[in-house]
Amino acid sequence: MRAGKSMVNESQTEERRCAILKSLVDNRYRSQIPRVVDSVVSSCYDSNCFDHVDAAVIPSKEALIEIIGLVKDILFPGYFGEQTLDRNNLRYHLGSEITKLFEQLSEQISNSIIHDCNRYEENCSECIDRGQAETIAFLEKIPMIRSLLASDVVAAYEGDPAAKSYDEIIFSYPGIFALTVYRVAHELHRQGIAILPRIMTEYAHSAVGIDIHPGAKIGRGLFIDHGTGVVIGETCQIGDNVRIYQGVTLGSLSFPKDESGELIRGKKRHPTIEDDVIIYSNATILGGDTVIGARSVIGGSVWITRSVPPDTKVIIEEPRLKFKEKQ
């Protein structure tokens, strides 16, 4: 018994000793935290660094991600919500969801407008009113967006023999998710709403690896197959019934600058893709003056910086393969 008690006492003593040592080490390093805090605060007064202190409220990325989920439920009723829908409760359900969307989106749009007013040192007393007006203008576009997305889903089904149903495509295809977010963001971009559209499409980019700038103009029935690594630039124009495979870049050939060395913004820098074009994986098409004519087929891994006439096939010469016997 005495031996047992002795062992317990030794164990408790060792635990106390370890706790004291840990406390001493913690205090030695924790005492340095105020110095670190002062250093970080000082850096916030450095004009070469960035912060958002003493500025208007900025839109919330977390709120916009929640809004995207809400919009998906409205654009594809019955697919993503928790409620089982029928024709009897459809109006009630959509009424509730659209009201929620109005409240959440108008707040974020108002924050975006307030942020820009502050940024340009303007005194805007109508930001909240404009935010609600812009939200109603967007909500009125929902039937049109639903029609565009329906054409994208049909294009995916007709373009992919592996697709078993429309439901599978809506639920699981990354291209449809990226296009859903893009088509919402594009309409907000057209309305002149700052920041929000880009946050939305960059969220989709981070989620599925498809980078579509909200300023791009995309027609009906776009099918992005597989999708990983696809890049569609801001001034890109894409016609109807276009098919794009993974790794395709529709980008800028160069970045022109003005006399002061600043980048020239607003100029068309990205290519135009006409109707019924197919672009296979890892093709790179660059330049604002580059036009890929209707019904053309662009082969995999090609590099294009000049226009292609309609009904043209562009492919790389077949490489010569060497086979060596295994020693």
Shape: globular
- Count of DSSP E strands? 14
Widest sheet: strand ordering: 1-4-7-10-13
Low-confidence sequence ranges: none
CATH-defined superfamily of the largest domain: serine acetyltransferase, domain 1
Our Rg estimate from Cα atoms comes to: 28 Å
Count of discrete alpha- or pi-helical segments spanning 4 or more residues: 9
Order of helices and strands: HHHHHHHHHEEEEEEEEEEEEEE
Could you characterize the architecture of this molecule?
This protein is α/β, with parallel strands linked by helices and 327 residues long. It has helices at residues 2-30, 33-43, 61-75, 90-119, 127-139, 142-159, 166-172, 174-190, 196-208, and strands spanning 211-212, 217-218, 223-224, 231-232, 237-238, 243-244, 249-251, 272-273, 278-279, 284-286, 291-292, 297-298, 303-304, 313-314. It folds into two domains: 54-209, serine acetyltransferase, domain 1 (Orthogonal Bundle), CATH 1.10.3130; 216-317, UDP N-Acetylglucosamine Acyltransferase, domain 1 (3 Solenoid). Helices cover 47% and strands 9% of the residues. The strands form three sheets. The chain has a five-stranded parallel sheet. A five-stranded parallel sheet has the order 3-6-9-12-14. A four-stranded parallel sheet has the order 2-5-8-11, with no helix packed on it.
